[in-house]
Amino acid sequence: MKQKILMMTVAAMSLSMAVPAFAAGWVKNGNTWYYTDSNGEYVTDAWRSSGNDMFYLGDDGVMVTNALIDTGSGLYYVDSTGKRVKDCWKELQDEYDDETYWYYFTSNGKAKESGYLTIDGVKYHFTDYHMDTGWNDGDDGNTYYFGEGNELYKPGWHYILDGGDNDYEPGWYYTDTKGKILKSQEKKIGNEYYVFNDNGLMCDGWVEFVDDETICKYYRLGNGDRMDGWIYHDGEDSFEASVEHPEGWYFLKSGRPYTADYRTTKISDTLGIAKINNKYYCFDEVGTMQYGIVKGSDGTLYYFGAPEDGAMKTGRVTVEYDDLYDYEGQTMYFNTSGAIGTKGSDFTGVKNNYLYRDGELVESASGDWEVVVVGGKSYVVNEYGKIKTSGTIRDDNDVRWRVQKKSDGTGYELVKID
């Protein structure tokens, strides 16, 4: 097979070698070296030795210098003296695309064609004899990155600015012990968990996971470590999540927020209550902590205080925050005991001589003592919601009334005293 010479710049040379006395061997014609066979013919397209070195004769029989030699079974390089190089790097121009590439010629002079090669303790990768730089999608389906020195990145964190010709974004990437860029996974590194997208970029903020169910987790902005406990989210767009997370407080377990469907007791399709550090909080379907008056699916009311607090309030309270139901300023009473869903729910009945209906304090509308019916039972209340179960009262018209139990046992009534 005729062999191919990829010519570089040819330099003037001076070759000193011993010429054998026999007919076959090296001959010099002017400044040009040839090799003749036993018939006195010039040898072409072949390697011949001189001492411990190899030299190449071109198709015209002239010894080649400064050129890549493609023998069909490998690629070699001869320097300005014509000697085949070995164990060295060469930066050479490719004749097909005029681009400059680095080649490495091994101990037998053959250029490394493909795959990995460790040189002086540093790992490199080659494709079609060219040393790979930057991003490289390997034949094994993995992605690798070669740094400023074009060496394979060692295991660990790397901030990469060069996105190359692919969709890789500047940011933090992590390579494993084989130099692979971690992709499409959550990984424990040291004592923390991090997550990487399909290109291997470390994600932060809200990240969406799609498997049997779609969930979101939160990773610290900038640093990327998975967070636990309380966080305040400013409402900015999430990194890798299609679900909007409004501004507010969230409570995370292994990065995942408590929601109406996760680690809470549901009080409606979109709301759930959870006990955290001996306090009770309410979260919606994406995990935003609720505050103020909250209503369950059956109309039951709960009160979770101020936006910066969010803890369930029980007992007698004055509602200060209510953006939805117009209870602001109302005096209300919420159950102080019971299971989740019962504790903190609105109370109907009498507590400490005050009457409540669905949590609201029931007051006399007339400003005087009057009878009201709550839960099918009659009560005598004044303008402050306080009840009276016995004795007499005098109204604004100076009429006296006696408070007594009704004969049918359904509460109390007022009987005028003549």
Automatic annotation (TrEMBL):
The answer to keyword Ligase applying to this record is: no
UniProt xrefs under Gene3D superfamilies: Cholin Binding, Multimodular pneumococcal cell wall endolysin, domain 3
What are the Cell wall-binding repeat spans here?
Answer: 23-42
The signal peptide, as residue positions, is: 1-23
Q: What is this protein called?
A: Cell wall-binding protein
> Does Repeat count among this protein's keywords?
yes
Could you tell me the keywords of this UniProt record? Answer: Repeat, Signal
Question: Pfam families from the entry?
Answer: Choline_bind_2, Choline_bind_3
Recorded superkingdom: Bacteria
